[in-house]
Amino acid sequence: MNTVKCHEYMKYSLKCQKLIISAIMSIHHLDPRSTNEVARPRLPSSVLFAFGGWSGASPTNAMECYDSRAGAWVNVTVTGEIPRAYHGTAFYRGYVFIVGGFDGLEFFKSVRRFDPVGVIWQEAECDSVHLTYGLMSMCTQVGGFDGVNRQGTVEVYLEDVNSWSLVPSMLNPRSNFGLEVVDDVIVVAGGFNGYGTIRNVEGYDYKSRRWNNLMEMAVNRSALSCCVADDLPNVDVYAAPRDVR
């Protein structure tokens, strides 16, 4: 920003000054739908998918994407996909895999594969799925249920000393939530707070060691799952709109 302020165009061009000042003001109150060409956030390099979960009295097939650069959720639900909760999710070789789950009547053994480019769901062979989970080279335990209360505590495993260390607790205790890491931030989505399913989303920044509330999802749900999809060629389909003109 200092480089921009000190540039000769800013010194001698009144038109440029007005443009940059307007952009700076927009950035401080960033709206993903802003029509300001300079201030609009760039498309993200990755998006966080939140799939299914328990909403109200039954599972849902709701699918939303979190655009971290715009700080917004986008509804990308595919009509006709089977609702499910308590499933596993992973992004692998360009596809999103949904493993198992429960639709309220049946416990699934099947694996479903979502193609983000073709925007279609297909059955997948179980032995073709290789699930890997990583959390910034750390093992982190977040929230949960101790048999009496929902928890907000967060612990990080320190491999060097073979022990667990407490870090700041979540703002909203919960269990049965979705969790992933996007842009070096742990994102916790939805869950059950002991009274009902929630749509609240919060993120933990390891650098600042702080939790912050993020934009809520559109659907209250627990027992959902999340994954991050990187380098999608059609990421604009899953990102918040940048221009409404």
How would you describe this protein?
With about 240 residues, this protein is mainly β. The chain contains 3 helices and 17 strands. The two termini are about 25 Å apart.
Defining traits:
245 residues; mainly beta; four-stranded antiparallel beta sheet; 3 helices; 17 strands; globular
Task: Reconstruct the topology from this structure.
Elements: H1 2-6, H2 8-12, H3 14-28, E1 46-51, E2 54-55, E3 58-59, E4 63-67, E5 72-75, E6 88-92, E7 95-99, E8 111-115, E9 120-124, E10 139-145, E11 150-158, E12 163-167, E13 178-182, E14 185-192, E15 197-205, E16 210-214, E17 225-230
Give the strand order of the largest sheet, numbering strands 1, 2, ... along the chain.
Answer: 5-4-1-17
Strand content: 35-45%
Structural class: mainly beta
**Helicity range of the residues?**
10-25%
Mean pLDDT: 83
Keywords: Kelch repeat, Repeat
Organism: Eptatretus burgeri
Protein name: Kelch-like protein 10
Quick summary:
The chain has 245 residues and is mainly beta. It has helices at residues 2-6, 8-12, 14-28; strands at 46-51, 54-55, 58-59, 63-67, 72-75, 88-92, 95-99, 111-115, 120-124, 139-145, 150-158, 163-167, 178-182, 185-192, 197-205, 210-214, 225-230.
